[in-house]
Write a structure and sequence with these properties.
globular; alpha+beta; three-stranded antiparallel sheet; 340 residues
Length: 340
Amino acid sequence: MALISKKKIPFKINLQLRKYLKKYGRETVMPIQYADLLRFESSISLYDKQGNDTLWVTIFFPYSEIEHIYDGLKKIYADLKTDGNQEVIKHLTIDRVDLCTYGNTQPFRIRIVNRVNDNFDYFYLKRADCSRVYGMELEHLLSPNRISYLTFENSLVEEHIAGIPGDQFFKSYLDNPKINQIRLAKEFVKFNERCFVMLLGDMHSSNFVVDITPDFEEDYYRIRAIDFDQQSYEGKRTVYQPQYFKQNNPLIEMGMKYMTPESVKQYQTEERSLISGRLKVENQRIYELMSVMAKDEISSEENTVQLKTELAHYYKSEKFLACKTMGEIVWASLERVMVH
């Protein structure tokens, strides 16, 4: 079983990482920041369609600040979605700003609506944490998914990743006879392998979504991480393997029912080959990212020693023992994919 030991310590974005982010268009000047949204004056609980408390609250700002804050949020959305094209925000309005009251990070979620057709979208404003940045950048470069995010000083803006939250999917969809359980079990094996190779931790069912895409004969499934706080922070190896979280048992039981050890091995090999291909395509950018990450302090010495020791034992490779930082451990993990 995978357990998170303690509350994660946030780490600031250092100058080297900031330079990388600027080079690749992730850094922009924002008109407002996370701290500005903390100046709300009141809030009410937010309930879902079934009347359940979501543990988010909708917040309200002083009348004197609403226009400034809402205009700033619309400009940030334009930067996130259209590289700063201000034309797109003419018909947009900020419908709601919510604050998450549980968990460590307390993000703000902004609901933005197009007045012309009532179409809506979400994005998030959070405290900047370099762990999240490394996690999202690795996901963007080495997974089948692309992620839009922006940084500025102590703030981080992320796009909304659409999909059915894993825990909700287990409750409402698994019993549906239309669900292709074999395809879903295969996708979980591949997701598990991606997380382990990139050392993205804490992928229990609340931290990923299931994206269902109708195909001409069958539905296609993709499991996507939505929380990157635990990128290479914990020392326990099993934290980086979603198969060890009891919250994911419905998918694990499905895999045990439909998968043979041979088919699991095949899908693991397939996923590592895909990651290897992306590493070759993004060779220069990955090298720049890992050069920064390898020198960055993103975990404790205790966690670093524990993880490199456990991975050395797991892979029967002493190369991990030479690693001095979490970034070096991630790089050693990625190098294994390139070799095999």
